[in-house]
Amino acid sequence: MRRSWFVLLLVCSAQFMVTLDVTVANVALPSIGRDLGFAIGDLQWVITPYVLLTGGFMLLGGRAADLLGRRAVFLGGLAVFTLASLASGLAGSPAVLVGARALQGVGAALLLPAALSILTTTYEGAQRTRALAAWGAIGSSGMAVGLLVGGLLTELVGWRGIFLINVPIGLAVLVVGAQTLGRGVAGRPSLRGLDGRGALLLVSGLVVALYAISEAQDEGWGSLVTLGGLAVAAALLAGFAASERAARNPLVPATLWRRRSLVSGTVVTAGATAIMVGAFFLNTLYLQDVLGMTALETGLAFLPVAIAVLAAAHVGSHLIGHLGSRAVLLIGLVAVGGAGLGLAFVPDHASYLADLLWAYVLLGFGAGLSFVGVSVGAMADVEHAEAGGASGLVTTGHEVGAALGVALLSAVATAGVTPGDLGALAAGYRSGFVVVVGLTVALVGVAAALMPTVRPPAGARMALH
């Protein structure tokens, strides 16, 4: 059974690398902006293309894993991700960096759902519950640790190091994965009839939606640009839905839409990720631009968040056996909402120890519980044959949520802010966390009404062998 331990370690290592890259660039944003000439309002595009392309093509990656084989798609996505990381680290202009980050997203879109489907089909019963809990914990801790790693690398070797570090790690996982993972493919490998048009419509709709939201900070939420862009995005996403219904081989099989736990879990995953990634974005700007911290100091300031996430993941994996996954999720969301409420009232020049630290710890602990609870609940009743499609749906929610969170909270926080106006930036920071509280309340309602309660069988061992 030693092989099972290697499979869990392998897929979680790959996921950690991908989710770390959602936030690792946050701390380096001011340095990247100065070096490559980004305007403050455009800095979100260092992050947005990565999470947008990851989320947009995740469904395609998930179905490809089912049809071509999880091992092949996992290794292919990892190779693309590693190559794009190299290109990001060597970028000499904003356009090259944005393009390389987009390519990273495509690689991640293949890699992540294949990894989750490998995990889901490798383990059964209580082992699957523990493995999914580990997956949720790694996802949330990767985002938090990314801020610390980003600060350390930016301070010690420069911002390019945050991307180049993926190259040796990616190559190592690629070699081990090629030797460790099985080659099984369900049925005859074929992409015939796969809804490629639907994938393009989905990506196009998300791009237009995010552009409209990002432009709202300059044009206004009631402007023709914003409202027109959102209308076009809605039409493109409706086209995606129509294409899926007509496709012989849809990205999301119709049976998956009837799984309430999976669909509601995807919604909660998207919302929780939007809150976490958006919160990291806001706090990075606040700590560096308002409080004057360096990149290294900012990374260290987020260390308690990472520790709290890991502690909560450990606690949550045990609480699920007693309270069930839904209760753990709800406790986590309430904690996240409490942290957001506290950050919505910080003064212009807050004290890290007195005003921010407690909220950071509560935010991290709540996130750790939330992601463990939703990961277990969403994938609990997924069959092996549909694991790739289901994994693609959940991971799409994760990455689309990250993109929407950065775009929305950036638009709210930087609306009308001019360089050097620290008072306006602090006020925007508080406004952003008012939005966070509202989103959290909505997620609590969705989770309470729609998410199932999942517990491991009574007396089952939770350890992986």
Can you tell me about this structure?
With 465 residues, the protein is mainly alpha-helical. The chain has 2 domains: 2-180 and 249-450, Up-down Bundle (Growth Hormone, Chain: A), CATH 1.20.1250; 196-248. Helix content is 78%, strand content 0%. The protein is built from 19 helices and no strands. The chain has helices spanning 2-23, 29-36, 48-56, 58-68, 70-89, 94-122, 125-156, 161-164, 166-180, 196-219, 224-246, 254-257, 260-290, 295-301, 303-323, 325-343, 352-379, 387-414, 422-450. Helix 1 (2-23) runs antiparallel to helix 9 (166-180), helix 5 runs antiparallel to helix 9 and helix 13 packs antiparallel against helix 17. The protein is globular and about 55 Å long. The model is unreliable at 458-465 (pLDDT under 50).
Topology of this structure?
Layout: H1 2-23, H2 29-36, H3 48-56, H4 58-68, H5 70-89, H6 94-122, H7 125-156, H8 161-164, H9 166-180, H10 196-219, H11 224-246, H12 254-257, H13 260-290, H14 295-301, H15 303-323, H16 325-343, H17 352-379, H18 387-414, H19 422-450
Helix pairs in contact: 1-6, 1-7, 1-9, 3-6, 3-10, 3-18, 4-5, 4-6, 4-18, 5-6, 5-9, 6-7, 6-18, 7-13, 7-14, 7-15, 7-17, 10-11, 10-18, 13-17, 13-18, 13-19, 15-16, 15-17, 16-17, 16-19, 18-19
